[in-house]
Amino acid sequence: MTYPTPGEFPDFEQFMVDLFTPIATTVTTLPATSSDLQSTLPLIWVRTTGGTLDINAITYKAKVSVVAFGVTRTQAQQLSVQIRTALLEAPASHVNGVLVDYTEEIVAEEPKFHPPILRRSRGLSEVPDLDPLNQMVEIAFCIEARRQ
């Protein structure tokens, strides 16, 4: 099978895998267990979260999420800088045969996180995620491409 498929919009997840793999291992699905995840760090997880076709059906505008995982939060933040740079410099260059027209960073969808409930002598209190081992940074982008 030829990639990209002539006359079709690109597979945006595959485009990101090809773009980010030189930076770190890049996947579209996370490893099955926490220990598997920890053993593959640093890791980049990419996924398409939505998108729209323009009114003339010429350009597809994909919304994507990219999560950088590192051994430490600092490593994840440094990895996210490399990801941002690579994606924002991608327009007008070919990545494994795929040509994208435009990229921009967008606001990531709010994580669906419910903080734990901490029981105290004065009742229940919600506490934010204060885990110092938080090893991930999520960033989101919009990628525009025409049929290849």
Secondary structure layout:
Layout: H1 12-20, E1 25-27, H2 34-39, E2 43-53, E3 59-69, H3 73-88, E4 94-95, E5 98-99, E6 102-106, E7 117-120, E8 123-126, E9 136-146
Parallel strand pairs: 1-2
Antiparallel strand pairs: 2-3, 3-9, 4-5, 6-9, 7-8
Q: Would you give an account of this structure?
A:
There is one protein chain. Strand 2 (43-53) and strand 3 (59-69) form a beta hairpin. This protein has 148 residues and is of the alpha+beta class. The protein contains three helices and nine strands; from the N terminus they run H-E-H-E-E-H-E-E-E-E-E-E. The chain is 21% helix and 36% strand. The strands form three sheets. A five-stranded mixed β-sheet has the order 1-2-3-9-6.
Number of helices: 3
Helix percent reads 10-25%
Q: What is the overall shape?
A: globular
What is the terminal-to-terminal distance?
14 Å
Strand order of the largest sheet: 1-2-3-9-6
Alpha carbon gyration radius: 18 Å
H/E element order? HEHEEHEEEEEE
Beta-strand percent range: 35-45%
Report the count of strand segments: 9
Main β-sheet description: 5 strands, mixed
- SS content category: alpha+beta
Compute the average pLDDT. 86
List low-pLDDT spans. Answer: 113-132
In summary, what is this structure?
This protein has 148 residues and is α+β, with helices and mostly antiparallel strands. It contains 3 helices and 9 strands, in the order αβαββαββββββ.
Summarize this structure as a short list of keywords or feature phrases:
148 residues; alpha+beta; two-stranded antiparallel ribbon; globular
